[in-house]
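Blackboard transcription, Thursday session:
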Amino acid sequence: GENVEQHPSTLSVQEGDSAVIKCTYSDSASNYFPWYKQELGKGPQLIIDIRSNVGEKKDQRIAVTLNKTAKHFSLHITETQPEDSAVYFCAASRTSGTYKYIFGTGTRLKVLA
Amino acid sequence: DAGVIQSPRHEVTEMGQEVTLRCKPISGHNSLFWYRQTMMRGLELLIYFNNNVPIDDSGMPEDRFSAKMPNASFSTLKIQPSEPRDSAVYFCASSPPRGSPLHFGNGTRLTVT
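(Written on the board underneath:)
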């Protein structure tokens, strides 16, 4: 079945450094790739997404890159701050046919002050 | 917009009891998803509805689990009888048409003793 692999499972960075989280998906028909941030006691919240017709998208300190040929996509957070500490999930979905999000296993990011 | 509303936030019950989790999606969203989150298995899709109709319930663990969506503004996930291994956080999410991000509720933390 379809799956999404996410690495690393945990990541610690110093405040101000960059953090990179990588995902690989198996379903070549996937064409929508959102990233979610989950804080303690809350549901996942969308932070950025990318569609298959673009290779990169940026929103302030957050950027996502997509390589459809390799079926890889990555989240980049620059100038990390303590409030970036959370669990991050990637996901892959189709926008036609079977419509269900497949989530990665999550990355626990800790930003050290 | 009040977001996706789930109730209760916490549920503690004894093995063998019936448990009903409730969800109110965002008005206008036509897709609704139930996920289960555990440390071991991450975010698992249990079932999703489109226009109140169950489309894919292949993630429902077994016959003890059932879900309904009697109208566009309400869904339930029922476990009968409950078992300790059902202990997890259950999330409901809704979305507009395909290719749109999921909006999650804050989850129901279920503990079965």
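Lecturer's comment: Chain B has no helices and eleven strands.
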